[in-house]
Amino acid sequence: MMIDMHTHMRAGGDYAKRLVDAEKAIGVDRFVTFGAGPGGDWASNDEILKIAEQFPEVIPFAYVPLGHVTPDGLTALAKRGMKGFKCINPTRPYNDDSFLPVYARMEELGLPVYFHTGIVGRFDAGRDLDIDTYRNKVIFLDRIVRRFPDLTVIAAHLGNPDYGEAGMMMRWHPNLYFDLSGSTLKKKKPPFFEELFWWHAPQPTGGKRVLGSYSNDPYGRGPWEKIVFGSDVDPEKVAELKADYDRLFDALALSDDLRASIFGGAAARLLGFEKPWTPVNR
Predict the structure, then answer these.
(1) Strand pairing of 85-87 and 113-115?
(2) Smallest Cα–Cα separation from 222: which of 208, 211, 235?
(3) CA separation (Å) from 113 to 82, 86, 99, 145, 200?
(4) Spatial separation of the C-alpha atoms in residues 282 and 271, rounded to whole Å
(5) Where on the phi/psi map is residue 81: left (φ > 0), alpha (ψ -120 to 50), or beta?
(6) Mean pLDDT score of the chain, rounded to an integer?
(7) Residue 276 within any structural domain of the chain
(8) Tens of pLDDT along 210-265?
(9) What's the rounded Cα separation, in Å, for the pair 67 and 185?
(10) Alpha-carbon dihedral sign for residues 260, 264, 268, 270
């Protein structure tokens, strides 16, 4: 199964059908989609659920406006059919005390949460939206993944531009994953990723994966097994973005197993479509 973990849904018109067609054209079977709150023509949570009813390919995540949502509000969204949550542009940094009960409820519900990390795009209406990239910094996820070890956290854009913090956090925290969407694949070359992911585990040998000497993952996973495919582009650019991933993986000579994990295997486990990982023999 090929899964795109990061798409945004725009409201109205034929956008949903265009996105479904574009994803199918590159081989995607299922894709996660969500709105993004104020600052654009993004679909509301109600619209996301209606689209998911119309298109079985859609996996609905709820946009969660941190600072304006309660734990009980999350429970209500889950009961309505949301399969996860998306957070962007919080009213305070992600690790603020006031948000901890919200994350605790996410962990209790057993649903993953997707965080925007790094630079936030500039919008014409930004004057009235109180947007601050600082509040979206990847380092603020550190407290969350430590305090809630059973909460699956997926972060967009590999922390762009704070890649070093993102990489080291991914190394240390088994419940933290990233996608490579955004400008990263355009501006960063293969040697950058080889250096950033220096602790990668050896390739599988004889059907077994040996725990890397510098890995902190209880399942013996290397960094590429903590990366999921996310596009985060309009339908017209989906194929180009998939080609960017492919070019990087070709240059790095990633194995077929790792590519399969990135393009769907890891996501299928995180979403509960497949059995979770089991620890390797050490």
Answers:
(1) parallel
(2) 211
(3) 11, 6, 13, 11, 25
(4) 27
(5) left
(6) 92
(7) no
(8) 444 466 788 888 899 999 999 999 999 999 999 999 999 999 999 999 999 999 99
(9) 32
(10) positive
- For residue 103, the domain's CATH number is 3.20.20.140
| DSSP-derived pairing of the beta strands 85-87 and 227-228 | unpaired
Going by C-alpha positions, the residue among 174, 180, 176, 279 that lies closest to residue 229 is: 180
Does 128 reside within a domain? yes
Q: Most distant CA pair in the chain: distance in Å? A: 58
Structural domain range at position 35: 3-270
Sheet harboring 85-87: ordered strands across? Answer: 62-63, 85-87, 113-115, 153-155, 176-179, 227-228
CA distances from 96 to 1, 105, 136, 168, 282 (A): 37, 15, 12, 21, 38
Q: Do 238 and 22 touch, CB atoms closer than 8 A?
A: yes
Instruction: Report the C-alpha gap between 253 and 267 in whole angstroms.
Output: 21
Which residues are within 8 A (CB) of 99 and not within 5 positions of it... i.e. 6 or more apart?
A: 66, 67, 90, 92
CB atoms within 10 A of CB 235: 20
CA angle 60, 273, 28 (to 5 degrees): 65
The answer to whether residue 158 sits within a structural domain is yes
Do 229 and 3 form a contact (C-beta atoms < 8 A)? Answer: yes
Give the tens place of pLDDT for each residue, 165-176: 999 999 999 999
